[in-house]
Amino acid sequence: MKKSFIIQLVFIAASLPAFSQLTLENCYQKARDNYPLIKQYDLIAKAMDFNLANAAKGYLPQISFTAKASYQSDVTKIPINIQGVQGLSKDQYGMTMEVNQTLWDGGAIKSRQEIIRSNSEASRLNLEVNMYAIRERINQLFFGTLLIDEQIRQNDIYQNDLQKNLDKVSSYVRNGIANQADIDAVKVELLKSVQNRVQLKHSRNAYIEMLSSFTGEKLASDIVLEKPDMLSDEPVTINRPELQWYDAQMQSYAKQRLAVKADVMPKVGLFLTGGYGKPGLNMLDNSFSPYYIGGIRLSWNLSKLYTHKNDRRLIDTQINAVQSKKETFLLNTRMDISQKENIIGSYREQLKYDDEIIALRKSVKQSSEAKIANGTLSGIDLVRDINAENLALQDKSQHEIKMLLELYNLKFATNN
């Protein structure tokens, strides 16, 4: 008997419908994974690796090849005849290959690599800003669905209450206490509540479809959204990704200062030139011959000094512009936080009175039910009092969900 009872329990549990649940954090993660921009993280990393590799190749020997053939109207001539020395030809030919090896470039390659890294980090953080914005959309859809679920629940309670009173009024009519108009008044309100439930279900389906688009999964129409925990009050600190993005932009501009400095520094390197031509290095030998030249070279482009000061000022201006944007963002965010905190405070105050209002509305309704049983109240007045209690219940549930939404919007505004 014991085994049979256990088997029956297992069978009953297996036959019950399995409702899937979805949490707010699941929505955040699924929406992030599904969002097309997520692919750009890998693209940014790969682009940085390619650019760094290309910049590092500046340390490798730089090879160039040239070839020329020319004809000139006159050539250098020696006014004396020397045995074995021929005059130069007017047609001349040459091929050269030059190899340059950088020894010191004033930090140009290193600064270029630093700029590449800082630009990539700024791009990554800009992408993070765009990805973070998805959370706000998810909040609206998730808590909007929770609010509709609560309205549907209250609507079901309201219908049950109306149906219960309809049955009572019907019996009162049969006993001559009430009339058909009282029944009709309750029936009309019952039909309107059924109609309202249909509208709520369609609205919920629309919200679920939008959530499905964000998460990339086909969510069932009856999926249960898990109500998040109420957040505790914590000191407000702003940790938004926008702040890191602004800092990364300023850091990127600061790295450009190194490039400006490197532009005015001298460059030192080794060179080796090999060639084959007519004539070669010996201008007195008018025949094809190979040759080479090697040594150390110092070059210094002093014309960069003309714009050096303005280039630095331009970078400082760009840094100040980003700093101004950061300060503006912080100001707007603080105002947004203050507004959300006031809204949350308002909901907290309203919730203090909701239970008392509901209790009073319920007492009034019960009194009306007693009056209609005695034939001293019309069905319309009863419906009015039932509606009043239902609205009080809806107000409380809406205050709770809306306060929860504002709490999570505040969390979004601060990223705490």
Keywords:
disordered N terminus, Outer membrane efflux proteins (OEP), 416 residues, alpha+beta
Describe this structure in words.
The protein is an alpha+beta fold. Mean pLDDT is 88; it is low at 1-19. Helix 5 packs antiparallel against helix 9 and helix 8 (305-373) packs antiparallel against helix 9 (379-414). The protein is rod-shaped, with a radius of gyration of 41 Å. It has helices spanning 2-15, 24-34, 40-56, 108-132, 134-174, 180-215, 241-263, 305-373, 379-414, and strands spanning 21-22, 62-71, 91-104, 224-225, 267-278, 289-299. The strands form two sheets. The chain has a four-stranded antiparallel sheet with strand order 2-3-5-6, with no helix packed on it. The chain has nine helices and six strands.
| Number of separate strands | 6
CATH topology: Outer membrane efflux proteins (OEP)
What do the pLDDT scores average to?
A: 88
Protein structure class: alpha+beta
The assigned CATH architecture is Up-down Bundle
Task: Produce the secondary structure layout.
Layout: H1 2-15, E1 21-22, H2 24-34, H3 40-56, E2 62-71, E3 91-104, H4 108-132, H5 134-174, H6 180-215, E4 224-225, H7 241-263, E5 267-278, E6 289-299, H8 305-373, H9 379-414
Parallel strand pairs: 1-4
Antiparallel strand pairs: 2-3, 3-5, 5-6
Short description:
The chain is rod-shaped, with a radius of gyration of 41 Å. The chain is α+β, with helices and mostly antiparallel strands and 416 residues long. 65% of the residues lie in helices and 12% in strands.
